[in-house]
Design goal:
Layout: H1 14-24, H2 28-41, H3 46-59, H4 62-75, H5 84-95, E1 98-101, E2 106-109
Antiparallel strand pairs: 1-2
Helix pairs in contact: 1-2, 1-3, 2-3, 3-4, 4-5
């Protein structure tokens, strides 16, 4: 993991930036590949998970979108859930038969 000598956090990976550019270019399948490659090096990076979830959703891959949105919800457990990305994840999961609880970070299929 590379760090900038001036900034306290890690540098955004080239794969994540590529994924974002491919999403903007309406190429979600390729974007998903880029985000997944980035996640191999940094498996819990919030914006890479969100990018992978969005790319999978736009590519029509509901299973992978559900997986990544669920991971995103798990990361935000115990928060107030006011981030727009968290709302997007919760709405997607609700539309696909899941309910989420931010307190536990779980997404379960509705009975």
């Amino acid at each position: 993991m590379e760090k900038d000598p001036v900034m306290p956090g890690t540098i955004i990976s080239a794969r994540q930036l590529l994924g974002e550019m491919l999403l903007d270019a309406e190429r979600p399948r390729e974007a998903l590949e880029a985000f997944e490659a980035a996640l191999k090096n940094e498996p819990a990076r919030y914006w890479e998970l969100f990018g992978a979830a969005q790319a999978a959703e736009r590519a029509g891959d509901q299973e992978r979108a559900t997986f990544y949105y669920t991971q995103l919800i798990r990361q935000t457990q115990g928060t107030d859930g006011t981030r727009e990305s968290t709302k997007v994840a919760s709405e997607f999961l609700a539309q696909h038969g899941f309910f989420t609880t931010l307190a536990s970070g779980r997404a379960r299929r509705k009975p």
